[in-house]
Design goal:
about 220 residues; alpha/beta; 8-stranded parallel beta sheet; binds pyridoxal-5'-phosphate
Length: about 220
């Protein structure tokens, strides 16, 4: 596949599902990918990337930012509270705000720095015990809590269970966002981003369909 095919498929899905042209941002998920693959996509002109691990991003992105100053990197993996300080300096957005202790930490950091990355609240729509995210019934209170801390909550994020049709999860997330007056919807990956666009995604997170399979053993 590759960058241009995914860009084309996103544009086609926008047209097919009545979404405005350019209303879906493509986050190229570069975690674990070899440097030459990421650099090829940077040279093709893409500027929005996603990473899952603070330490890995810290090692890779300073040099690429120096070469491509308009790059933006979004954190899409679970964030430990003790890495939050590094994360707010490293990322333009964090998609995985999922608990009050992290919200408090991010609010303190935002106050000290006078700025915060954009935030998405992760929702565990499939209620999977091993997965991060606020449970659906706790979401409205958590959104209110984060807003009371002046955190810039832009939207919601979900990762549907692997063995289920993702469409009902995307629809549920869209409903929760609308109910809370949130415009951003971070949903959809390589295998299901078109279904996510149909349901209203504003940010799709696509890794392997752009860069090829990840080789975790080679890290
Ligand atoms: C790795 C990852 C992706 C990208 O997955 P692909 O299937 O390679 O597109 C998207 N979102 C999150 C949260 C991820 O961890």
């Amino acid at each position: 596949m590759g960058l241009h095919e995914i860009e084309t498929r996103i544009a086609e899905a926008e047209a097919k599902y009545g979404r405005a042209p350019g209303s879906v941002a493509l986050i190229a998920v570069s975690k674990v990918q070899p440097a030459e693959r990421v650099e090829a996509v940077l040279r093709e002109g893409h500027r929005l990337f996603g990473e899952n691990y603070v330490q890995e991003a810290q090692g890779k992105w300073p040099a690429w930012r120096a070469a491509f100053p308009d790059v933006a990197v979004h954190m899409i993996g679970p964030l430990q509270t003790n890495k939050a300080k590094i994360a707010v300096d490293l990322f333009e957005a964090i998609h995985t705000l999922d608990r009050p202790s992290l919200a408090t930490k991010l609010a303190n950091l935002a106050q000290a720095r006078g700025a915060s990355p954009d935030l998405f609240i992760q929702v565990n729509t499939g209620r999977e015990p091993q997965k991060a995210g606020v449970l659906p019934e706790d979401l409205d209170a958590f959104v209110a809590e984060a807003r009371a801390m002046d955190l810039p909550v832009q939207g919601l994020m979900c990762i549907p269970p692997e063995d289920e049709d993702p469409a009902p999860h995307f629809a549920a997330l869209a409903g929760m966002a609308a109910r809370n007056g949130l415009a951003g919807l971070s949903m959809g990956m390589s295998s299901d981003f078109e279904a996510a666009i149909a349901a209203g995604a504003t940010h799709v997170r696509v890794g392997s369909a752009i860069f090829g399979a990840r080789d975790y053993a080679a890290r």
